[in-house]
Design brief:
12 helices, single chain, mainly alpha, 53% helix, two-stranded parallel sheet, disordered C terminus
């Protein structure tokens, strides 16, 4: 399916679904999709061409057919309602709600860009440059990071950021940020992220002793959950992270660089029949992995 950032009309979902199915099954047709939705094939074609609208009664079937749930289903419903309403103010309100559900745009890291994840202070230097208006003062940058780094490390971070294009020089001699949010794919890249995350979590542990309480916010919960609850909490964490990124994007005058670490992991498993819960020895396997 299309990413949220590529969708401007609820019918984009339907067209993307049809094209995907057609690519997987060459014999898939408008008639087959129309039969599922209870629509004539010619009428469905006009819907996909954005010349007609999906009947209200077909909405639940359409979402089930496309396996839309959660945020995607809500996004679909809001765009449909926005398209159908004749009230301009209501339409704008619905579109705004739909856009708020979109993911932030992310830049996919290439091999050379994995240098960004070699050390925790490289992304930190990049964020710091936003705070000080892009002023390049290696000595001050090294001093202001928590914990402090060497001037050589600060300079190396700037060199890497310039090399991979995540900051750029502007006419004033300052540096400006380019892409904001990053994502990584592939086994080598995932290992780089894992190494980076270990560094970040170590900093979180150190902050308990080295950062005043009023400058940090660390809390923990120990929970007993079933699989359904585990899955729901995982989705809630994803949604929280998305909301955090959107809120940060809206920050007008940032004056500090923060790390936010979210960790949700097992500390005990109880064996049960029918494989409902994993066997205790799997904990040991996880430790070795």
């Amino acid at each position: 399916m299309l990413a949220f950032s590529d969708i401007v009309d609820y019918r984009d979902f339907l067209k993307a679904f049809y094209e995907k199915r057609k690519a997987e099954m060459p014999f898939y047709s408008y008639r087959m999709m129309g039969d599922r939705l209870g629509l004539d094939s010619s009428y469905l074609y006009r819907i996909l061409q954005k010349k007609q609208h999906l009947p209200v009664h077909a909405l639940p079937v359409a979402k089930e057919m496309m396996a839309l749930s959660g945020r995607e289903a809500e996004f679909f419903d809001l765009l449909f309602s926005a398209t159908m309403t004749k009230d301009k103010n209501k339409r704008e309100e619905l579109v705004a709600k739909a856009l708020a559900l979109r993911d932030v745009r992310r830049h996919t890291l290439q091999e050379a860009e994995l240098k960004l994840l070699e050390n925790w202070w490289i992304p930190a230097v990049r964020a710091y440059l936003e705070l000080n208006g892009g002023m390049v003062n290696v000595k001050q940058i090294a001093k202001d990071l928590c914990p402090p780094i060497t001037e050589a490390q600060a300079q190396e971070a700037i060199d890497i950021l310039l090399e991979v294009g995540f900051v750029k020089k502007v006419a004033s001699g300052k540096l400006a940020l380019t892409e904001t949010h990053l994502t990584v794919g592939g086994p080598e890249k995932k290992m780089a992220v894992r190494k980076f995350q270990k560094q970040v979590l170590a900093l979180a542990s150190d902050s308990l002793d080295n950062v005043p309480v009023d400058e940090r916010n660390i809390s923990t919960l120990t929970l007993s959950v079933d699989q359904a609850c585990f899955d729901d909490l995982g989705e809630m964490l994803k949604e929280f992270r998305r909301l955090v990124q959107k809120r940060v994007d809206a920050s007008k005058n940032p004056n500090k660089v923060m790390h936010l670490s979210m960790a949700f992991y097992p500390v005990a498993r109880v064996g049960a029949k029918n494989g409902v819960l994993q066997k205790q020895e799997e904990c040991e396997n996880d430790k070795k992995a």
